[in-house]
Specification:
Blueprint (H helix, E strand, L loop, with lengths): L1 H12 L2 E12 L2 H5 L4 E12 L4 E18 L4 E19 L6 E24 L2 E31 L5 E15 L1 E5 L5 E2 L5 E2 L2 E5 L2 E11 L1
Length: 219
């Protein structure tokens, strides 16, 4: 019952924060060995303050593009490009002060990360180029991790009702421990003489370090 009352007070009376981050992703372990390039992407989150404690809870939806591999085509196919990407959905619990010009935080999170490999065929049709996209492989991994960072308030104000709002710059980092998932090894993509595509599929844990910067708006 107390948890229900606390959750209700958080959603109704606590402040709300929206954040948008640019993220640089560094694969770790077997994922680093199989995917040569680092990733980049975006993440948007919605957080709700707990009024009676320096806590907030919410969720985040993100996108990561890891790398792309290009293979010269044959016949009418001019080029073949293979992309590895991931969509991330996490639930977050954050320890952070609600006031102050600098607001450091520690957080824990868990979620589901959806890995997708797609192949794009670029056809050379004399005068016009056209594109066909085929999804080769997809898999989901469970994820859990921790993070830390800080928000630096650059502007704050009160509205006519006396409610406080703030606009902040955000810098942070995360370590994600991901379960096993299958994905295409980029360097394994090949095109044979008759135009058939072959590739090697790897299965490994999906750990990575996530470095990010962006902005946050609390109202």
């Amino acid at each position: 019952m107390r948890f229900a009352v606390l959750l209700f007070s958080t959603l109704v009376f606590g402040q709300v924060q929206f954040g948008l981050d640019f993220r640089g992703v560094l694969p770790q372990g077997d994922l680093e060995e199989n995917i040569d390039d680092d990733g980049f992407g975006l993440a948007g989150r919605l957080m709700f303050d707990v009024p009676v404690a320096p806590l907030s809870a919410g969720f985040e939806l993100g996108y990561i593009h890891f790398d792309d591999t290009r293979v010269n085509g044959r016949g009418d196919i001019d080029e073949i490009r293979t992309d590895n990407a991931a969509v991330t959905l996490d639930v977050i619990l954050r320890l952070q002060p609600h006031r102050g010009p600098v607001r450091p935080y520690l957080e824990g999170f868990m979620g589901v990360h959806y890995f997708v490999t797609s192949t794009t065929f670029f056809y050379d049709d004399f005068d016009d180029d056209f594109v066909d996209v085929e999804r080769d492989f997809d898999d989901a991994a469970y994820a859990i991790g921790v993070g830390a960072g800080a928000e630096f308030v650059i502007s704050s104000w009160r509205d006519d009702d006396g409610d406080r709002s703030a606009f902040s710059l955000h810098f942070g980092a995360r370590y994600t421990r991901g379960s096993d998932a299958e994905y295409v090894i980029p360097d394994s993509v090949e095109l044979d003489r008759v135009g058939n595509i072959s590739f090697e599929v790897a299965e490994s844990e999906t750990d990575f370090i996530d470095v990010r910067f962006g902005f946050a708006w609390k109202w």
